[in-house]
Design brief:
By secondary structure, this protein is an alpha/beta fold. 38% of the residues lie in helices and 21% in strands. Strands 8-9-7-6-12-13-14 form a 7-stranded parallel sheet, sandwiched between helices. Strands 2-1-3-4-5 form a 5-stranded parallel sheet, sandwiched between helices. A two-stranded antiparallel ribbon has the order 10-11. It is elongated, with a radius of gyration of 20 Å. The relative contact order is 0.10.
């Protein structure tokens, strides 16, 4: 049984979260707290395995509480966020402080919205309960190549897929990379609003120009294209160039956007000049697409288990031999540059 402590200033949300989580046979809610101070005492008394934490809290905001928690008693935390710009910004900051994942509060009380929220909540709490919470590996900033090798990057494409833990993993991967990198396309499992904030956040912290894809953009070096949170991102060929395209089709592997959808489009149009990277995440989305890329001539990399928050997606890829290489997160940037400059 995974013991959960629910922290939310709304009595209604505490009751709702408790009811939804207790419906799963593998989860038991051992306590509820309306503010971080009460939560601090209940953590000492109840020793929960996982916390659900509202991002906006009275007396002490969720970020301050999370910062103290990760310093004094690190443990898996699933943030419960509002689908607003402020909620997105705060949640991304929480993930950088050590939160494992987040669920977006339902927009309304319609049965379908509540059912989807419950499924996501249970799914992520169960995954969080399996995590051994250790300090993250140190980030090693890799050497950047000289500008005179930029011609070797021509006609290359990098495709990245991630889920749980991916927001920080993607930033760790991209931050050391140079501004003359080939175009990068990314699918991260993330809801709308959050994907916009994620792109803005990455753009501030990277040498590359990071945008949320709108569809129809020509893929150009030095640019990163993030899938929006409510559509699949694919690439298509347009003469001698590639462009982004957004699909409003059904979810694949439970997800929209789906990593498999992106990877399969890269396999179809650019496999022999592409590099595929699958990072931390729950489930198996992206593993078949990565295998498709490898079989058609791409070089493929999976994040290793030790550096993954959840080794579901990369682990599934490794299991079916979809990866040419399995690497710690902090080694992928340098490997990427090696591949780009020697080939």
């Amino acid at each position: 049984m995974i013991k959960v402590l629910v922290i939310d200033d709304s009595a209604f949300m505490r009751q709702l979260l408790t009811h939804m989580l207790d419906a799963d046979d593998n989860i038991i809610v051992v306590g509820e707290a309306e503010d971080p101070y009460e939560a601090r005492e209940l953590i000492k008394q109840l020793s929960p395995d996982v916390l659900t934490l509202d991002v906006e809290m009275p007396k002490m905001d969720g970020l301050a509480f999370l910062r103290n928690l990760m310093r004094l008693r690190p443990m898996p935390v699933v943030m419960v966020s509002s689908l607003t710009q402020k909620g997105a910004d705060v949640t991304l900051e929480a993930l950088s402080l050590g939160a494992i994942d987040y669920v977006a509060k339902p927009k309304n009380n319609h049965q379908n919205s509540l059912a989807l929220f419950q499924n996501n909540l249970i799914y992520k709490v169960l995954a969080a309960g399996q995590i051994t919470f250790d300090a993250p590996p140190p980030v090693r900033h890799n050497l950047q190549p000289n500008s005179d090798v930029s011609h070797k990057f021509k006609n290359r494409l990098i495709a990245i897929g991630a889920s749980t833990g991916g927001i920080e993993a993607i930033q760790t991967l991209l931050t050391p990379l140079p501004a003359n990198l080939p175009p990068v396309v990314i699918t991260q499992h993330i809801p709308p609003v959050f994907s916009t904030s994620f792109a803005v956040r990455l753009n501030k912290n990277c040498n590359l120009n990071v945008i949320e894809a709108k569809g129809g953009e020509k893929l150009t070096p030095g640019h990163v294209y993030i899938a929006p949170g409510d559509k699949h991102l694919v690439i298509i060929r347009d003469g001698a160039h590639f462009k982004t395209k957004l699909l409003n089709s059904d979810p694949v592997n439970r997800h929209k956007p789906s990593v498999d959808v992106l990877f399969n489009s890269v396999a179809e149009h650019a496999a022999k000049t592409s590099i595929g990277i699958i990072l931390t995440g729950m489930g198996n989305d992206g593993s078949q697409g990565l295998l498709n890329m490898r079989q058609k001539g791409a070089y493929t990399i999976a994040q290793d288990q030790a550096s993954s928050v959840v080794w579901g997606m990369p682990g599934s890829a490794v299991e079916i031999n979809a990866a040419n290489e399995v690497l710690p997160l902090t080694d992928i940037s340098s490997k990427l540059l090696t591949l780009l400059t020697i080939n």
